[in-house]
Design brief:
42% of the residues lie in helices and 11% in strands. By secondary structure, the protein is α+β, with helices and mostly antiparallel strands. It has a four-stranded antiparallel beta sheet, with helices on both faces. Strands 3-10 form a two-stranded parallel ribbon. A two-stranded antiparallel sheet has the order 5-6. The relative contact order is 0.15. The mean pLDDT is 96.
Length: 353
C-alpha cells in the first residue's frame, strides 16, 4: 500500500464530500493533556463534568479507541453566506443574537454522515480497517488534534484559526489504525494581537489561551442549566444563544469564506428575529422550530431564561414589559427569577428618566 498516495486521495475525497481541509496527525497529545489538566484543576470548566469524567481517554486516543495510530481531522466552514450582519444584530437590542453556528441545522449529523462516507471510501480502496468517527460525540481533544494536523492554530480565544480562512468552521475526526504520513502542524500567527481578549463582554478569556468557562456567554446561555449569575446579565446584552464576539473581532476572519452548505443557512429568520417574538413562542412552537437545530440543546426553560435577560437589557417599551408579564403568569421558578430581574431593569430605566 502506498500510504503517501492514499493520504492524498483521502484529501481529494474529503474535498469532494464538501470538507474544506483534511489533515493527519499522530496520537501524542502530551502537551495538550497537561494544559487540560491544569484547566480542570483550576475549576475553570464550571459544570462541564464530562470534561474530566473520562479520565485520560480524552487526551490519549488509544485508550478511547484501542489500535488507533493516526487521526484524520476535517474542517467544514459554517459562516452563513446570506445571514444578516452580525454587528448590526448585536447593535439592535430589540433583536436576538444567536451564534452563527446555530442559525441552521445541527452540524453533528451533517459532518458525521460525510465523515462516515469518507471512511467507507477508504475501506473501498484498501479493504477493512479499524476506525471510528467523532463529531463532538466522545471525549476528543479536537482542536489540539486539528492543530497537529495542520488545520490551524489554537488562538488566544482557544478557537482554531486558519490564516487563510479564519475560524468559522466545524471539526470532525476519524480515528484509524493505518500509519498514514503526518501533516505539518500549524504555526501560531496571533502575534501581539489580543482583540479577542479585550472585546469579550464578560472577560472570560482571563489570559491568552486560557478561558474561564464559568464567565463565557456560550457556557452561560447553553451549558449552564441554572440561573445566570446576576453579575453577567447586563454584559450578555441581546445574546440569547452563544456568543461570537471573539471571532467577529479576529483579524484573520477578514479572509473567511462563507459556507457553501445549505444545511448551515439561517432558518426561521433567526438571524434577524425580534426578542419579543421569540419570547412568546409556546413550548410546542419552540420544539417545532428548533427540530434538528443546536438550539434545542438549551431546552425551552433555558430559551426563555436567556431571552428574559436580553429583554431586561432592551430599551424600555410597553410591549417589552407586557411580554415579560405575560410569561410570568405561567413559567418555571427559574424563568420567573429572570423575568422579575428584567422587569426591575425596566423600572430602574423609567425612574432614571
Amino acid at each position: 500500500m502506498d500510504l503517501d498516495l492514499l493520504a492524498n486521495q483521502i484529501k481529494q475525497w474529503g474535498a469532494t464530500l464538501g470538507f474544506d481541509q483534511i489533515g493527519v496527525s499522530d496520537i501524542d497529545l502530551t502537551q495538550a493533556e497537561s494544559h487540560l489538566q491544569q484547566w480542570l484543576n483550576e475549576g475553570l470548566h464550571g459544570d462541564l463534568d464530562y470534561m474530566h469524567k473520562h479520565g485520560t481517554r480524552r487526551s490519549r486516543p488509544q485508550e478511547l479507541v484501542p489500535g488507533t495510530l493516526r487521526i484524520i481531522s476535517a474542517r467544514m466552514h459554517y459562516f452563513p453566506q446570506h445571514a444578516t450582519d452580525a454587528w448590526e444584530t448585536l447593535d439592535d437590542h430589540s433583536r436576538a443574537y444567536i451564534a452563527r453556528y446555530a442559525l441552521g441545522r445541527d452540524y453533528h449529523k451533517t459532518l458525521r454522515k460525510r465523515l462516515g462516507k469518507l471512511a467507507q471510501q477508504i475501506e473501498l480502496a484498501i479493504g477493512p480497517m479499524g476506525y471510528r468517527v467523532f463529531v463532538d460525540s466522545a471525549p476528543v481533544l479536537e482542536r489540539a488534534l486539528a492543530e497537529k494536523a495542520g488545520l490551524g492554530w489554537i488562538g488566544k480565544h482557544t478557537n482554531l484559526i486558519d490564516k487563510d480562512q479564519g475560524s468559522w468552521f466545524f471539526l470532525g475526526e476519524i480515528y484509524v489504525d493505518i500509519a498514514l504520513p503526518l501533516d505539518t502542524p500549524a504555526r501560531n500567527h496571533c502575534g501581539t494581537c489580543q482583540r479577542c481578549i479585550d472585546i469579550c463582554p464578560t472577560q472570560a478569556i482571563i489570559a491568552p489561551y486560557h478561558l474561564d468557562a464559568r464567565r463565557c456567554i456560550a457556557y452561560l446561555t447553553i451549558e449552564n442549566k441554572g440561573a445566570i449569575p446576576i453579575e453577567f446579565r447586563k454584559a450578555i446584552g441581546n445574546r440569547i444563544f452563544g456568543c461570537d464576539d471573539c471571532q467577529l473581532i479576529c483579524p484573520w476572519n477578514r479572509h473567511a469564506t462563507p459556507s457553501r452548505e445549505a444545511d448551515f443557512a439561517p432558518r426561521h429568520g433567526l438571524d434577524h428575529a425580534h426578542l419579543i417574538a421569540l419570547f412568546l413562542w409556546t413550548e410546542t412552537e419552540f420544539l417545532e422550530r428548533t427540530g434538528g437545530s443546536p438550539i434545542r440543546r438549551t431546552g425551552y426553560d433555558g430559551w426563555l431564561r436567556n431571552i428574559a435577560v436580553a429583554l431586561g437589557n432592551a430599551p424600555s417599551h410597553p410591549e417589552v414589559i407586557t411580554a415579560l408579564k405575560t410569561k410570568l403568569t405561567a413559567c418555571s421558578p427559574l424563568v420567573a427569577e429572570h423575568i422579575v430581574w428584567a422587569l426591575d431593569c425596566h423600572t430602574n430605566q423609567q425612574q432614571a428618566v
